[in-house]
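User: I'm writing a short report section on ligand binding and want a predicted complex to refer to. Could you take this sequence and magnesium ion and write out the structure as tokens? A short remark afterwards would be nice.
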Amino acid sequence: KAKRDGKNRYAIYEERMSEQMREELHLKQSLHHALDNREFVLHYQPQVSARTSQVFGYESLIRWNHPDFGVLSPNHFISLAEETGMIIEIGEWVLQEACHQTRKWQVEASQPDLKVAVNLSAQQFVDSMLPEKVFRALEDSGLSPESLIIEITETMVLQDFDRSIETMERLRNRGIKVHLDDFGVGFSSLSYLNRLPIDAIKIDRSFVRQIGEEKHDVAIVNAIISMAKSLGLQVIAEGVEKKEHISYLKRKGCYEYQGYYFSKPVPAHLVTL
Ligand code: C2E
Ligand code: MG
Ligand code: MG
Ligand code: MG
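Assistant: Sure. The structure tokens for the complex follow:
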């Protein structure tokens, strides 16, 4: 009896495995048509400044409206898009879409200073054509370079430090801003941070979340803020969900926030300027 149960369980396991593999294969195949079928959409999440009490820009965050699986968040398909190389084309679409939408908002709402932050993937960042693609998105949309923020992560930079610096400088020489995303989760050291041509760092939400919690570790939040300040960098806190997050961050000298407290990411038509 025991043996038969074991065998059954194995059979069920095998069935589930193959189901999961089938889904993955299906996802991978449908990725090839997703761009042509216009299944991607950008959501926008406001970035707020406590100095002016105003939204100074939006981070664009991709979603995939999958015909069978529904709305998929980037964690479900970005790595797949990287594996298949599709990320290069998807990334170009994101740049174009985010720049065009933001220019439209600037004109419609008479807010010429509105900014947009665009996330890059590791593969895009090492693409030697990247700066040209970014410049083209600006030219095509009419968005000024000062309105565009490129978000990259520490791990991306560490893959090829010298080349990364070169790419960042090409972007910044045009007036584009570069922000270091998810800061604190990599192995950040002061000496390398000092050499990076960046405008701001974003404190990862895993640290912000701990503010006001019982077993909190605010030492890291404090260290990041003072480190950024001493290097003359702007600091943006992500994952701000509570009033007490804001009061704490403000007390420590961090005045720029992004998180559910203000708004979840929403599609463009739901953004109120
Ligand atoms: P990220 O760049 O660090 O973006 C912030 C993530 O935190 C977003 O998740 C956002 O929805 C979420 N978030 C913001 N505020 C809060 C909050 O208060 N609480 C909680 N729990 N979460 C919050 P999302 O949209 O699922 O994106 C995940 C990641 O996918 C992004 O992390 C980014 O690394 C990547 N990603 C998003 N869009 C793109 C894209 O267009 N291209 C590439 N290459 N990567 C993208
Ligand atoms: Mg980001
Ligand atoms: Mg982030
Ligand atoms: Mg993050």
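A remark for your report: The beta strands are 40-49, 54-66, 70-72, 115-119, 148-153, 177-183, 200-203, 234-238, 256-258, 266-267. The mean pLDDT is 92.
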